[in-house]
Amino acid sequence: MRSFEELLAEGASAPVDGWDFGWFAGRATEQRPSWGYARMLTERVGTATAVLDVQTGGGEVYAEVLHRAPRRPATAAATESWAPNLALARRNLAPLGVTVAEAADGAELPFPDASFDLVASRHPTVTNWTETARVLASGGVYLSQQIGAGSMRELSEFFLGPVDPGTGRLPETVAAGARAAGLTVTDLRPQALRTEFYDVAAVIVFLRKVIWTVPGFDVAKYHDRLVAMDAQIRADGPFVAHSQRVLLTARKP
What we know:
Blueprint: H1 4-13, E1 28-30, H2 37-45, E2 50-53, H3 60-68, E3 75-80, H4 83-93, E4 99-102, E5 116-122, H5 129-135, E6 136-147, H6 153-160, H7 171-180, E7 184-197, H8 200-209, H9 223-236, E8 239-251
Parallel strand pairs: 2-3, 2-5, 3-4, 5-6
Antiparallel strand pairs: 1-7, 6-8, 7-8
């Protein structure tokens, strides 16, 4: 393994825009949810007329789904809030006929009422249930893979100390938000997934990319903890944490 200083420099300089995690190949692994979100979304897109992907990131997953779908919807749209991801999403999705609109996370969606028969969102930072229900047509479906409460808690607590995961992302809380907006929850599944980091550079890139894990993460600010992380991985092997995922499917009556 390379020196700590080399790994530190690599982790601090690696690009972190978009939601393509290909950089982590050979550096970190994460179990995949048993339900296969991309497969589920591909099947639903293939029978939908108008589809919206909320908080699409760089559009990587949405683009893959549209490529694989047996047929593409007549109308395809997406939203994204972060400028670097917005530009990337437009590059990835424009060739597929997708309109990508800028919209702050959790804000109003810039579409008329009942515009879509399928709304999807993978790992939204926040879900505006009222807006989700508003843009869904009657009989329309919302499909989302959400980040569950206490996701990557072991990693968060290594840097921050004890963390209260709260209740906002518990499966029951997610479902209650959907029901309060008038949606009927038809599927709700939580799952914990083992994640391993093989060097400290992978930890740094992950924390720079998934910014809510350690809010305000900065290499200089957490230098001493990164030294400790590097020493632990060298002595004991990969650092293990667990991501939490919640699959939710809901229908608008």
